[in-house]
Amino acid sequence: MAIAKAERLMNLALCLLGTRRPLSKRELRDSIEAYVEAFGPGNSATGSDDSFNRMFERDKDDLRELGLVIETVESLDGDVGYMARRDSNRLPPITLDAEEAAALGLAAKVWQQARLAAAASGALQKLRAAGLPEDVDPYGSHGALEPRIPVHEAAFEPLMLACRDRRPVAFDYRKATAAHPEQRHVEPWALECWRGHWYLAGWDRDRGAERVFRLSRITGKVRSRGGRYTAPVPDVVTVRETVASWAGEMADRSARIRLRAGAGYPLRAKAASVRELGDGWDELEIPYGHGLDAWLVEFGPDVVVLEPAELRADVVDRLRAVAKG
Questions:
Q1: For residue 75, how far is the Cα from the chain centroid?
Q2: Is the pTM of this model over 0.70?
Q3: Are 73 and 80 in contact, with CB atoms under 8 Å apart?
Q4: How big is the CA angle at 134 (ends 130 and 135), to the nearest 5 degrees?
Q5: Among 63, 89, 104, 200, which one is most buried in terms of CB atoms within 10 A?
Q6: Peptide bond into 308 cis (omega under 30)
Q7: From CA 133, how far away is CA 97, in angstroms rounded?
Q8: Picking from 43-52, 150-159, 291-300, which range would have the lowest pLDDT averaged per residue?
Q9: Residues near 77 by Cβ (< 8 Å), separated by ≥ 6?
C-alpha cells in the first residue's frame, strides 16, 4: 500500500512538473493510472467524484509537504487547474568543499540496509543535480576503513520514523532482569549506537521520566499512538549524554573482575590495570558506571565479578533471568 501511494504521488508530481499549462482535476484523473484504476475515467458514471476529490486533495497536500510548489490557476471561465513550474521547484546552487562532500559520502555509505542505502543514494543524486561539482567524489577514499552500522532489530525502522515524526509509540520491552516483557508507552527522542548496540532515548509516559531502551530487548511490533508529546525534547548533545550514561559510558567508580586469558578484548581496552593471575585468568580494574552489569553478561563464563558486591549481584540476577528464558 505504501509503495502504491508513493508511485501515485510520483506520477502526480511528474504530471504537474511536465505540463506547460494548468491541468484540471479531470485531466489529472484521466492521466494517472492509479486514479483511473480506483475511480474510473473522469467522464465515467461509475467513478466516485467525492472519493477521488478527497484522495486528490490529500495527494496534493502530501506533495506540498514534501516541498513541491503547486500553483492553483483559475481561468477566465472559472475552471481551476494545477501545475508545478520547474523554475519554482529548482534547488539553488549548492557549493560543497571536499571535506563536506566526503562527510555526505560517508553518511550515505554507513547504512547496510538496502532501504536506507537507497534513500541516501537518492539524496546524493539530488545534490549532484543541484550543483555538486563533478570533480568532487563523495565516495572518494578519505580513509582506509569503510564505515558500517549494522542494524538487525526489526524495531529500528519504525522507531527511526517515530523519532523523525515526533510520534508516540508503544512496545513490549523485556528488561535484562525480567523473565517476561511489559508494555511501555514512550515519546521517542533519538536512536544512538553504543558498543555495537542500538538504544532508544525517550520519555517513558508510564514512569514520568526519561528512559533508555536497548532495541534488542523490544519484542513484537512497535505500535504508533496518537497525540502530541507531553515532555520537551532535549537537544542532541543531551540525548547522547543520556544514552552514554545508561549504556555505561560514564563511569564514576571502578570494579574488579576476573577475565579469562585471551578473551574480552573490549574490556581490556578500557581497563585501568591488568594483572596476570595464572591458570588462564587475569584480574582487571575497569570503569564502573550504569549498564556495566549488562555488558559483562555478554561475555558469559569468561568474566567473574570480584567487587563491588552490588555489581556482582546485578550480574548474577541478569544471568538467572537469561537462564529462565
A1: 45
A2: no
A3: yes
A4: 140
A5: 200
A6: yes
A7: 9
A8: 43-52
A9: none
